[in-house]
Amino acid sequence: MKLALILNVIDPKIGGVMIMGDRGTGKSTTIRALADLLPEIRVVDRDPFNSDPEDPELMSEEVRLRIRAGEAVPVGSMKIPMVDLPLGATEDRVCGTIDIEKALTEAWEFGGGSGRRPGWGRRGSVGAEGVKAFEPGLLAKANRGILYVDEVNLLDDHLVDVLLDSAASGWNTVEREGISISHPARFILVGSGNPEEGELRPQLLDRFGMHAQIGTVREPELRVQIVAERSTFDEDPATFRAKYEARQAALTNKIVDARKRLKSVDIAYDFRVKISQICSELNVDGIRGDIVTNRASKAIAAFEGRKEVEVEDIYRFAHVVHRCGG
């Protein structure tokens, strides 16, 4: 479970991870603890969408227009964001809302009060000026970060549809009264849940690159160790955290190095054929299993400081990225 989360941070295009298991097995605790390990990314300062200053696909429309006009946008850094999506969240809270009156006023003033408004884009969308009337939601905050849904199998259907649309396109579009605003919404989707509490919609499950199953620890010695660690934390959280601070920092640096190394990792043609052979023999629907296994194998190699994928890398995670067809 922990390695699956780390690999998704190294290569977000793996597609996220779904973690199912019994109650009290540390699913939520482990996922939220990942926030301390997340490295920093370069962002456009004061941009509500965490826009990448170099990648147009990860920029808001306003930032793209500013760069296209030759403006030097201020650049800063921030930790990769981790955003919780509550089960009871409204669609406006998730997607964001548009202040219709403000959007119309700004677009009209920007256009000089007559004719076609320069602040308006194609198909009635609002351009850079109208974006100021947009109140970003959770999808905007999660852009280039992690969106975590606890008890994802209990998520309302209308929110599932929103996640499916954003996960498929990498963009979130909000439409109100004929006004449309879009912004990048590329995030690592992480979900957890207890299978006894309900099934996950197949369409949403298909959006997770990896699927991990967590069981209750049965070994008495390990259970005793877990209880002791929890007791130590409850008595003095600061001392407990300090105990692992150096290891946490080392792991963060290892993740940062792996992200830099990932592009130079190579996977031999024979290994790519082997991956497709495994997927075919397991009757995996589509080719998503092939893609995810290739990416996961390269991420493992990068994490372990190598530039070549080994056959063990392929088998190490093949069982969590494949879902057999009927």
UniProtKB/TrEMBL annotation:
Q: Name one Pfam family in it.
A: Mg_chelatase
Organism superkingdom: Eukaryota
GO biological process: any one? Answer: chlorophyll biosynthetic process
Q: Quick one: a GO cellular component term?
A: chloroplast stroma
**Name of the protein in its database record:** magnesium chelatase
Domain (AAA+ ATPase) ranges: 13-218
Please provide the record's keywords in A-Z order. Answer: ATP-binding, Ligase, Nucleotide-binding
Complexes and interactors: The magnesium chelatase complex is a heterotrimer consisting of subunits CHLI, CHLD and CHLH.
